[in-house]
Design a protein that fits this description.
The chain has helices at 23-32, 46-55, 76-85, 99-109, 120-123, 131-151, 163-174, 224-231, 234-256, 274-286, and strands at residues 11-17, 36-39, 60-64, 89-96, 154-157, 182-189, 200-203, 261-268, 291-296. The chain is built from ten helices and nine strands. β2 (36-39), α2 and β3 (60-64) form a beta-alpha-beta unit. Strands 2-3-1-4-5 form a five-stranded parallel beta sheet, with helices on both faces. A four-stranded parallel beta sheet has the order 7-8-6-9, sandwiched between helices. α1 (23-32) packs across α7 (163-174) and α4 (99-109) crosses α6. By secondary structure, it is an alpha/beta fold. The chain is globular, with a radius of gyration of 21 Å.
């Protein structure tokens, strides 16, 4: 109950995503944050479970669902719409990773994919004598089965981030209000791949590179000497103005479309100087008008 005596609405974080993408890590982060967590809840039980939690006056619940409930996953989008209409605050998160990353993780852990082995034929995976090929088939089928849930969720790319980074990302997302659009600015290195969670990607590799200045090479775009170097170049200022103008023009429309999160990824060669500088500057500017979060994929390794 709040100070006026009104009931606190139930908040549900629904975690879905690819097998091997880190859902258990995210669920642990939510448990640490005080959420009551349930793993692998069958969709058929979602509404009954929510009703039970409401009767118990629960306020924060996290639920993980995955492709093990493949036959009933199509029920979930309509269930979430119904819960929102009842006043439940729903935060869908989808964890994703590249196919190569998922194949490597399954190979390293020797885990079995839920759509492989004896269940493969029933799930629609064609037979194959090549184990890697069969695993890739299973992963691509899983993407297809989860595509509707991914479309309606905020996506987190776990391909090249550590578990501690994923936990930090999840906790930062939960700090933002549910009912307002949140901007996520992310810097990254093209040499390590484009984030699959990005709604917009801007390539700034053509800008002057502080890496070639010996006194700046070991610094990042958050350090004042790098900021001063980049501020001196007209191309950098023009790039900033173009990105800022594009987002300023379209964000209101995205908010009217009921988007909860918009991820803007800015990449340079190493993800250390130019992209970091622009993320810091854009986050500061848009933070005056919108809820903003920032990530530096190659720097946030704590």
């Amino acid at each position: 109950m709040n100070t006026q005596g009104s009931p606190v609405p139930l908040e549900i974080v629904l975690i879905t995503g690819m097998s091997g993408s880190g859902k258990s890590v995210a669920l642990r982060a939510l448990e640490d944050a005080g959420y009551y967590c349930v793993d692998n809840l069958p969709p058929e039980l979602l509404l009954a479970f929510v009703a039970l939690e409401q009767r118990s006056h629960a306020t924060r619940v996290a639920i993980a669902m995955d492709v093990r409930s493949a036959t009933s996953l199509p029920l979930v989008p309509a269930q979430l719409r119904g819960l929102r209409e009842q006043g439940v605050l729903v935060r869908p998160l989808f964890l994703d990773a590249t196919t190569d990353t998922l194949v490597r993780r399954f190979s390293e852990t020797r885990r079995r994919h839920p759509l492989s082995g004896n269940d493969a034929a029933a799930a629609g995976v064609p037979p194959s004598h090549d184990l890697r090929h069969a695993l890739v088939d299973a992963i691509e089928l899983e993407r297809e089965l989860l595509s509707d849930l991914r479309e309606q969720a905020h996506v987190i790319d776990t391909s090249v981030i550590r578990p501690s980074q994923l936990q930090a990302h999840v906790k930062s997302l939960l700090s933002a209000p549910v009912s307002q659009l949140t901007l996520v600015f992310e810097s990254f290195a093209f040499k390590r791949g484009i984030p699959v969670d990005a709604d917009y990607v801007f390539d700034v590799r053509m800008l002057p590179n502080p890496h070639y200045e010996p006194t700046l090479r070991h610094l990042s775009g958050r350090d004042e000497p790098v900021v001063e170097f980049l501020n001196q170049h007209a191309d950098v200022q023009q790039m900033y103005a173009h990105i800022e103008g594009f987002l300023d023009h379209w964000l209101a429309a995205l908010a009217r479309d009921h988007r909860s999160y918009v991820t803007v990824a800015i990449g340079c060669t190493g993800g250390q100087h130019r992209s970091v500088y622009l993320v810091e500057r854009l986050a500061a500017a848009f933070g005056e008008r919108w809820i903003t979060l920032k990530r530096h994929r190659e720097l946030d390794v704590g």
